[in-house]
């Protein structure tokens, strides 16, 4: 693919003729085993658009947006309410805009670096290409991708959501009003993070740290959530150490940054800086041409791959990225897959 923009730059509009439904916002939900797309599904695309809302961020400063440190200073510190939480208290993945697509499917479609393939019946994402900034890798199999609540549901409960109505908790759990609430990441990274705050977990990809911290602060500010002392202090220390100049764009504004640098990259308002290309992913889907020196990547048999002719291994066996099966029969959807070769 021509570019590997981070999810903050890649929630682009995707064209999708309506089939038995009018679709104005994309969609998302867990996918099972990867299958070839039907002729009907192959022809479908969808229009993906994120809603906007009035910002509750701190007023813009002379530089255009407040720093994450200045927004952090406005967030109250309080002891957490650590009882009574149940995941079922935050209904998800919903279809709040009633366009036929769940929130999970919407995020998968919006964040795919290429046009996601969507089964028109039930709005199910069949395939796409996702960059996971937590581990700086790329994936093309929906079952490998989770939609992470940047501020986990339990963390939100402990920080103030316990006093919210059921409707407000559902809105939080399915928030598509801004890119910073939900993010597509590798499922194992989401599980590693679980419900931890930045005092206990930060992304292994250090180049994404400033963006992650700024997004955490932005979500807490937008939703009026507090921070406990250790969380607040840890975030302040990390921002001071590496991200003093990182800024926070108004909530609901156009898409911000890519991977902020560990030296203090910023999440600037849209239009103030050139697009930032995310670091080249080291993917289980090989990105090097066949014959390139070095160890071959470990791949997932049957998953989509690029470029055609690339080599990989799995359980000691050699695989090739090809558009036909071992008998020479083309795959029905025309995309290359990993097969033994």
Protein topology:
Layout (H helix, E strand, L loop, with lengths): L38 H4 L25 H5 L30 H9 L5 E3 L4 E4 L2 E3 L4 E3 L5 E5 L3 H6 L7 H8 L8 E5 H7 L15 H14 L6 H14 L68 E4 L2 E6 L14 E4 L1
Antiparallel strand pairs: 1-2, 3-4, 5-6, 7-8, 8-9
User: How is the largest sheet built, in terms of strand order?
Assistant: 7-8-9
Q: What is the radius of gyration? A: 21 Å
Number of domains: 2
Poorly predicted sequence stretches spanning 5 or more consecutive residues: 1-62, 254-293
The total count of strands amounts to 9
Q: Strand count, sense and closure of the main sheet?
A: 3 strands, antiparallel
* SSE topology string: HHHEEEEEHHEHHHEEE
- How much strand? 5-15%
Which of globular, elongated, flat, extended, rod-shaped describes the shape?
globular
Distance N to C terminus = 23 Å
Q: How confident is the prediction overall: mean pLDDT?
A: 74
**Helicity range of the residues?**
10-25%
Number of helices: 8
> Could you say which structural class the secondary elements and strand pairing correspond to?
alpha+beta
């Amino acid at each position: 693919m021509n570019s590997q923009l981070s999810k903050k730059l890649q929630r682009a509009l995707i064209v999708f003729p309506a089939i038995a439904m009018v679709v104005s916002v994309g969609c998302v939900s867990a996918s099972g085993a990867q299958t070839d797309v039907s002729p009907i599904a192959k022809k479908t695309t969808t229009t993906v658009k994120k809603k906007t809302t009035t910002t509750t961020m701190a007023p813009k400063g002379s530089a255009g947006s407040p720093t994450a440190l200045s927004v952090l200073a406005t967030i109250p510190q309080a002891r957490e309410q650590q009882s009574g939480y149940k995941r079922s208290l935050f209904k998800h993945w919903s279809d709040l805009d009633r366009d036929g697509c769940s929130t999970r499917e919407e995020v998968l479609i919006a964040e795919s670096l290429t046009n996601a393939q969507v089964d028109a019946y039930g709005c199910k994402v069949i395939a796409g290409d996702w960059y996971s900034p937590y581990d700086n890798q790329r994936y093309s199999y929906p079952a490998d991708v989770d939609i992470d609540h940047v501020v986990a549901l339990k963390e939100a409960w402990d920080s103030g959501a316990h006093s919210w109505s059921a409707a407000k908790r559902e809105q939080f759990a399915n928030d598509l009003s801004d890119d910073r609430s939900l993010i597509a990441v590798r499922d194992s990274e989401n599980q590693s993070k679980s419900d931890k705050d930045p005092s206990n977990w930060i992304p292994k990809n250090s180049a994404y740290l400033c963006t992650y911290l700024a997004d955490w602060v932005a979500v807490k500010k937008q939703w009026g959530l507090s921070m406990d002392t250790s969380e607040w202090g840890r975030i302040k220390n990390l921002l001071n150490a590496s991200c003093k100049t990182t800024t926070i764009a108004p909530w609901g504004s156009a898409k911000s940054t890519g991977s902020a640098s560990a030296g203090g990259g910023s999440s600037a308002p849209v239009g103030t800086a050139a697009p930032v290309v995310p670091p080249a992913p080291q993917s289980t889907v090989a990105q090097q041409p066949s014959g390139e020196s070095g160890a071959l990547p470990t791949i997932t048999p049957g998953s989509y791959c690029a470029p055609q002719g690339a080599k990989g291994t799995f359980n000691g066996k050699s695989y090739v990225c090809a558009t036909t099966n071992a008998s020479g029969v083309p795959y029905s959807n025309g995309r290359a897959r990993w097969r033994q070769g």
